[in-house]
Amino acid sequence: MDEPKESEEGARHGEAAAPPPFRAAVEALRAARLRPQIVMEPTRPPQRLAPYAYALEATVVDGDQDLADGRLVLLHDPAGHDAWRGTFRLVTLVRAELEPEMAADPLLPEVCWSWLTGALQARGLTYGEPSGTVTRASSHYFGGLATRPSASQIEIRASWTPREGLGGAPDTAAHLASWCDLLAQVAGLPPAGPGDASVVTLPQRRGPQSR
After folding, report:
1. What are phi and psi of 200, to 5 degrees?
2. pLDDT (mean) for 161-189
C-alpha cells in the first residue's frame, strides 16, 4: 500500500503535542459504539508510518468461536502526504476463514474489495486514493496432520484517505462503523439494523496514542 516512508519525526512527538484534529479523530474512535459481536480494543500502533498514529484490534465472535479479526490504524501527518492527498490515512487488515464453496469462487477477490468500498459508500462517506490487496490462501495438511480438513482464508489489506471535516478531522466514527460492517460481512453476520440498540462501548484509555 502507498504508505509514507518511515518518519523519525514521530519519536519527538508526545501525547501533549498531538494536534487538535488528531486528538478529535481519536476521541471519536474511542466514543464509537459497536454491535455486540465485535470485540475491540486499542493496540500499539505502527511506530514509523506517520508522526501520529492510533490503532484498534477487533474480533468478530459467535459464542466461543472467532469468525474474523482485523486491525484498523489511523495515521496523521499534519504536513500532508503526496500519496495520501490529505493529512489523514486509514489502514486496515481483515482476515477470516472461508467456507470451501466461497473459497473456490474465482470472483472472490473482486467481491471482497467491493465489500470494503460498498461499506464506505453505504454510509455516505467520501474518501480518496483507495489502495489495497485481497489475498486468498489455502492450507492442506499431510503426515501427522493429515486428519485435519483443508482450510482457506481471505485477507484484505487496504488503505484510504478519509475526507477531512470542520476543524480538520475526518468523521472517524463513521469510518469505523463502515469498517465494522466489512468485518461483519466477511464473518458472515447479517447486517445490523439502523435501530439496533444492542451495542457496546469501546474500552477507554487515557489520551490518544501518538508518537
Report:
1. -130, 160
2. 91
Query: 70 has which bridge partners?
Result: 58, 94
Q: Map grid coordinates 505502527 to a residue.
A: 46
Sign of CA dihedral 191, 127, 157, 20: negative
* Cβ neighbour number for residue 39 with a 10 Å cutoff: 15
Classify residue 195: in a domain, yes or no. no
In a domain, 201, yes or no: no
Domain span at residue 116 reads 9-190
Q: Is residue 197 part of a domain?
A: no
Following CA atoms 183, 189, 190, 194 in sequence, which dihedral angle do they give, to the nearest 10 degrees?
A: -50
pTM, to two decimals:
0.79
Give residue 205's pLDDT: 30
Grade residue 188 by pLDDT with cuts at 50, 70 and 90: confident
pLDDT in tens, 42-52: 999 988 889 99
In a domain, 79, yes or no: yes
* Residues belonging to the chain: 211
Cβ-Cβ contacts under 8 Å for 62 (sequence gap 6 or more): 37, 187, 189
Cα separation, 130 vs 63, in Å, equals 34
Cβ proximity of 74 and 173 under 8 Å:
no
